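S1.2 Input.
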Amino acid sequence: MKVFGITGHSGMGKTTLLERLIPELQQRGLRVSLIKHSHKNIDIDHPGKDSYRLREAGCQEVLLMGNRRWALMHELNEQTEPSLAYLLTRLHDCDLVLIEGFKSEKFPKLEVWRSSIGRSQLGLDWPGIKAIASDAEVANAVFPVLDLSDISTIANFVVQHATEFVE
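S1.3 Output.
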């Protein structure tokens, strides 16, 4: 399974790009999965739900099964976050894993950058960045710049630069 990352500061449009990129990759016959890392204390479950109550009661894992999907929630309970390598082993077989987050890991990434947000580029400060996807000209770019609205070109770039993950 190959990996490729989408990175950038908060509010740059990473999720919006992924929403458009995933169907394009699927049309090319690729089975795509995604790992998203957040620095926030996420909770996909909500108070009052049975699964929430049972997790709060002390279950290490709760697997929630519905007629259209299932989700496995694993409590870390003060343990350190698992590595990206470990998380990749938890996914079913696929052709490509898109990764949002894990900025400091060494795998190929595309930085989403919009000048209108007013934040600096990540650029050379983070390992693995191979190009920038932007909605504007990027002055003094040290990486190739892709048009953020040109999903076909971005998909070509992702497919060409995705690699097997090496820890």
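S1.4 Remarks. Residues 14-27 form the longest helix (14 residues).
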